[in-house]
Amino acid sequence: MKTKFVTTLIALAMAITVSAADKHDHDHAAKAGPTGGKLITEVEPHVEFFVNKDKKVEIRFVDDDNKVVAPGSQVISVVLGDRSAPTKLAFTKEGDKLISDKTIPEGNDLPTVVQIREKEGAKAVNEKFNLNLNDCPTCKNKEYACTCEHGDDLKKEKK
Any idea what the CATH number is for the domain that residue 81 is in? Predict the structure, then answer.
């Protein structure tokens, strides 16, 4: 009887561990958008923020399966760079994405605020982050869209 109880407990613990690992892998994989940009999931559809090779910001809207959906009536604005002289980006529709009217300012690790409105006049959702354009040492994305969370590991090593 005791052996059966222990076996059941071990099986239950393994099932919980596998379930947690599956959830972690799902969440882990969903952090970058289809183009490799930062995924903002606080809005529906989700928003992918991506800096292209021309240093312009591309905004794509994606569903829960990370598939690009056509822009609707959403209004996006971005403010980034030096706080004393910030760069403000406006966007125009270009195919299945929105593209910024200007390039991002020179530099790296730029304070960035993305403001997303469902439609003109709606309440805004703000996403704040530092736009770090360095390549991540362990995943294929730029640091601002990193999916491997190596920063937490590095912080733990320094303690």
Answer: 2.60.40
Q: Are 135 and 120 in contact (CB under 8 A)?
A: no
Q: Is residue 88 part of a domain?
A: yes
Using DSSP, state whether 147 is helix, strand or coil: coil
Helix (H) or strand (E) holding 139: none
The amino acid occupying position 119 is: K
State the alpha helices, DSSP H only, in the chain: 2-29, 150-158
* Cβ neighbour number for residue 116 with a 10 Å cutoff: 22
Which range of residues forms the domain containing residue 71? Answer: 31-158
Contacts 24+ apart (CB under 8 A), 14-18: none
pLDDT tens column, 19-42: 333 333 334 344 689 999 999 999
Q: Could you tell me the pTM of the whole model?
A: 0.75
State how far the Cα of 17 lies from the Cα of 50, in Å rounded to an integer: 34
Number of structural domains the chain divides into: 1
Q: Which strands form 87-89's sheet, in the order they lie side by side? A: 87-89, 75-80, 110-117, 124-131
Phi, psi of 60 (to 5 degrees): -120, 150
Distance CA 144, CA 130 (A): 7
Asked if the structure places residue 125 within a domain, the reply is: yes
Residue whose C-alpha is closest to residue 93's, from 118, 64, 60, 122: 60
